[in-house]
C-alpha cells in the first residue's frame, strides 16, 4: 500500500511507488503514462486521466471523440492560459484525454529536459501542457459549436450555484459566462 491509502481499499489501483504528496503529482502522471505505454497501448485509442472526484458521461464523451481522427496527436481538456505558455494547457481538474499517438510521443520524450520539465511539483497539468506544446501535439477545443464548455475544471457548486470566484476567470483560455447557458448540454 502507498502512504495515504487506507488498508481497506477494495478498488483496483496501481502502486506506482510515488509518495502521496502534491509535490509528486507530475512524477505520478509520468509513471502512470509509462505504465499505460508498457501495458495498454494496443488496447485503446484514447486515454483519460481524471481525478477521483471527476464525473464523465461516457456515452457523450465517446460520441464527441468519434468525430476526431484517433491516429493524430490530440490533447483534450478544459483549456487554461498561462503567462508565456502560448497554447496554454489543459486543466487537470477537468480531466485530460490523449490519443494513443499523443501519449506515445509524450512518454518517449518525458526524460528529455529540452521538451518536458524534469522537476516534479504540484503543477502537473502545466508540465504536461509544456511537453505537449514542445511536441506540437494539437490542443483540441472541447467546447460545443455554440462555444459552451463541455469540460469544467471546478466543482459543480462553483459553476452552477455560487458562481466562479472572479480570480478563477484569469485562468480560462476561452470566454466563460456565469450562467447555465455557458455549459453544453452535451457534457461528458
UniProtKB/TrEMBL annotation:
GO terms for molecular function: glycoprotein-N-acetylgalactosamine 3-beta-galactosyltransferase activity; nucleotide binding. The keyword Glycosyltransferase applies. GO terms for cellular component: membrane. InterPro entries: C1GALT1/C1GALT1_chp1, Fringe-like_glycosylTrfase. It comes from the Eukaryota. Pathway: Protein modification; protein glycosylation. Its main location: membrane. Pfam families: Fringe (PF02434). It is found in: Membrane. It is a single-pass type II membrane protein. Belongs to the glycosyltransferase 31 family. Beta3-Gal-T subfamily. This is N-acetylgalactosaminide beta-1,3-galactosyltransferase.
Amino acid at each position: 500500500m502507498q502512504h495515504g491509502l487506507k488498508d481497506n481499499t477494495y478498488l483496483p489501483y496501481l502502486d506506482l511507488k510515488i509518495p502521496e504528496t502534491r509535490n509528486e503529482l507530475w512524477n505520478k502522471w509520468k509513471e502512470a503514462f509509462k505504465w499505460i505505454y508498457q501495458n495498454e497501448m494496443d488496447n485503446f485509442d484514447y486515454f483519460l486521466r481524471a481525478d477521483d472526484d471527476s464525473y464523465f458521461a461516457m456515452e457523450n464523451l465517446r460520441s464527441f471523440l468519434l468525430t476526431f481522427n484517433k491516429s493524430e496527436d490530440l490533447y483534450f481538456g478544459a483549456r487554461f492560459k498561462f503567462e508565456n505558455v502560448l497554447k496554454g494547457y489543459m486543466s487537470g481538474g477537468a480531466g485530460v484525454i490523449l490519443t494513443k499517438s499523443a501519449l506515445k510521443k509524450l512518454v518517449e520524450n518525458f526524460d528529455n529536459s529540452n521538451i518536458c520539465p524534469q522537476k516534479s511539483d504540484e503543477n502537473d497539468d502545466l508540465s504536461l501542457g509544456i511537453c505537449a506544446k514542445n511536441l506540437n501535439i494539437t490542443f483540441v477545443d472541447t467546447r460545443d459549436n455554440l462555444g459552451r464548455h463541455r469540460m469544467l475544471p471546478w466543482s459543480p457548486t462553483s459553476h452552477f450555484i455560487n458562481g466562479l470566484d472572479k480570480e478563477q476567470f484569469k485562468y480560462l483560455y476561452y470566454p466563460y459566462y456565469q450562467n447555465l447557458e455557458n455549459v453544453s448540454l452535451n457534457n461528458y
